[in-house]
Amino acid sequence: MNSVKKTYVKCSIIVLLAVTISLGCGGDKAPNVSNIPVSIKSQRLDKDLYALDTNNLAAGLIKLEQKYPDFLGFYLDTVMGFGINRVYADTNMAIQKGLHTFLTHEDYRGVFDTVLAHYPDEEEINKELSKGFQYVKHYFPTYDEPEIIYLVSGLNNYGALTYGTNTLGIGLDMFLGADYPFYKSVGIPEYFSKQLNQDYIPVAVFRTVYRERRPFMVEGNNLLHMMIQSGKEMYFISKVLPFLDEHTRLAYTKEQLEWCEENEALVYDFFVREELFYEKNLQKVLRYVMDGPSATGMPSSSPGNIGSWLGLQIVKAYVEQHPNMSLIEVLDDETDAQSFLQQSKYKPK
To answer: For residue 86, how far is the Cα from the chain centroid?
Structure first.
């Protein structure tokens, strides 16, 4: 059965074994990708659902399945959990109790209305994603951009999800702006609100592109290992989304990024002083590489995942020491964390 991962997108990244220096990752200047062809195909499942005749849902679903022959059943049953099981009949209570409620209840209807008001079309989002896919294809020449299906999940925190090998779903209801009042009511923490806007959609997508092939692993790893894992992810995002502001790519506020830059040496010294680099107790260290209101033991101005930012600085330093390594070589480098740090010759500013 196909699986779904919240905020993640499943995309295969297959790379030519022979990578030339022209595909290397040294330096901060973004390559010219204007001549790399990218074709974005997208559909609006949210609009199509919104347009269904709620007095005749079975007939509407039969027609809708012709447009989404594989994805519709996956969406209705795996994403939404209605249990319709492709039995499109008026006698199917899963349609009447589940889908009908979703399409007619005033709260859910309000979500649909807000999404349509914010995103009457997907042209601007597709333009941003196309640019990102051009950079991905520059570094990974055999990569195929996925088909995109825009949807609404009733604020169930599906920012991005995947189906099969080449389909990406984007939950537009998770990008309605930090001030959208119902995020708080469904338990989304305030510190996460900066990621709930349109600017963050490309970051969510390409973070997922990365994690699908290189999932974040915590079991049995120390904090330094996790920092470098997260640092590589952030480095990848910086390479494929160079046109976005750095604080957006990091999912930080401008103030949080400024704090990091101004206190880099203090941050490094904190982890050394507290002897956290080689700590494997997840209760002590996982919070430094996960979203949070602020970093434990640091001022409120710090981002919760300050360890990820420090990992990015270590990765950048490593790249400077290995200027001829390609991006794929850096990302797939299996050097152990301690040796990676030593070879980076990282010196906090």
So the answer is: 30
What are φ and ψ of residue 161, in 5° steps? Answer: -145, 170
Predicted confidence (pLDDT) at residue 21 exceeds the cutoff of 60: no
> DSSP assignment of 241-258, as one string?
-TTS-HHHHHT--HHHHH
Cα–Cα nearest to 284, from 269, 302, 297: 297
pLDDT, tens digit, 9 for 90 and up, residues 234-251: 999 999 999 999 999 999
**Measured distance CA(184)–CA(178) in Å, rounded:** 10
The Cα 249–Cα 125 span in angstroms is: 16
Question: What is the C-alpha R_g of the chain?
Answer: 22
> HSE on the CB side for 323, CA within 13 Å?
3
Q: What is the 3-state secondary structure (H, E, C) of 185-202?
A: HCCCCHHHHHHCCHHHHH
DSSP for residue 218: -
CB 231 within 8 A of CB 308: yes
Helix or strand (DSSP H, E) at 162:
strand 160-163
Q: Is the pTM of this model over 0.70?
A: yes
In the chain, domain spans = 32-212, 216-344
pLDDT in tens, 63-122: 999 999 999 999 999 999 999 999 999 899 999 999 999 999 999 999 999 999 999 999
